[in-house]
Amino acid sequence: MLALPNFELPFTVEIDASGVGMGAALSQQGYPIAFFSKAFTPKLLRSSTSVRELFAITSVVKKWRQYLLGHHFTIIIDHRSLKELVNQVIQTPEQHMYLASLMGFDYTIPYRSGNCNQAANALSRLPKQDHVAFMVLSVPCLTFIEELRAQIVENTEYQLLLQKIQSHLEDHQDYSIAHNLILFKGRLWFPRGLPLTTTLLTKFYATPTGGHVGIAKTIARLSKKFAWPSLWDDVA
User: At what angle do helices 49-63 and 93-100 cross, to 10 degrees?
Assistant: First the structure.
């Protein structure tokens, strides 16, 4: 469990910059207050180690300025050349930019090896990815149509209507046939009494996605997709 900050005690900021990102841990007397990690941009990935370390320091101080501003704190890094950060001669525009953003803060930077800076060290490194996992293809497999076909094959009412529509389409203008299935005004039609009816009623009413919305709303939702005789009686 993370500790609450005590502004009477000094803060310690542990920072590490790896080849892929940065990590940091804010603590007091060895108890963690907050953690932070961030991946480097392509530009920073091409920069030197010193630039990445400077970026990490300034980013962390900016993120946790509400804890650090007005209090002395310690920045622990594993880069020896930045130990005397405030006393360094500014040589590059990047150093000028990063050091300027630290003005107004009261800090010291002791050196600590990376082996002793384990929390920030771990946060700065992304876990290894199994690239094979990105090649997995997931395809939904719908069994509803197969179940419907299996149930209507031996249904006399359905087969008789199918034959009438195929023989006298002009007498059944509201009906159409698609993939040997009957559609009534664009909605899938099947006769009353199929076992699939109970499955549909359960899916549209009793499941979490159904939501138990009541008879009227259940009928309205079903009627948008399906058509069959005496729908109200089936729901009741």
Answer: 20
